[in-house]
Specification:
With 145 residues, this protein is an all-beta fold. It is built from one helix and ten strands, in the order βαβββββββββ. The strands form two sheets. Strands 1, 2, 5, 8, 9 and 10 form a six-stranded antiparallel sheet that branches. A hairpin with a 2-residue loop joins β3 and β4. The radius of gyration is 16 Å and the shape is globular.
Length: 145
């Protein structure tokens, strides 16, 4: 598994990123299959959230790194993405890691480039569905054809 995380370069930003069709109102975890180029992939997304169980369902948590300050703080949780590529030798995991919700950061695995533009999760969408204001925007692109 060839994984790297790097600041977006001009070449990376020139890639044709397409939004993965996750539906935040359906809650997390979620799984979907789709084509990227001519290759079939399965995408699985879940969240790990450090939030009190008694928070109201409408409570929104921004999973992006906080702005730099003199006191180091971590986001209240993170998303994990698993990508399985289907090929002639069967399925293989090409990506399994935490995502960093920072639009200028491109994470790569083999032929894919992945970036997270937004990751806001409502307490009610953690293992549950409903319209609570969650917003998850993940883009995927082919690094080469």
């Amino acid at each position: 598994m060839n994984l790297s995380t790097a600041p977006a370069t001009a070449d990376a930003l020139a890639l044709d990123f397409r939004q993965l069709p996750f539906v935040p109102d359906d809650g997390l975890p979620q799984a979907l299959g789709c084509l990227v180029g001519a290759t079939a992939y399965d995408f699985g997304l879940y969240a790990s959230l450090d939030a009190p169980a008694d928070d109201p369902p409408q409570t929104l948590y921004d999973l992006a790194p906080p702005a730099p300050s003199s006191v180091a703080t971590a986001p209240p949780g993170y998303l994990v993405l698993r990508v399985v590529q289907h090929g002639p030798d069967g399925p293989s995991v090409v990506f399994l890691r935490k995502l960093v919700a920072e639009p200028g950061l491109v994470q790569s695995a083999g032929p894919l480039a992945i970036r997270v533009l937004e990751a806001r999760l409502a307490r009610g969408n953690l293992n549950g569905s409903g319209h609570y204001g969650s917003s998850i925007v993940i883009g995927v692109a082919q690094r080469w054809a």
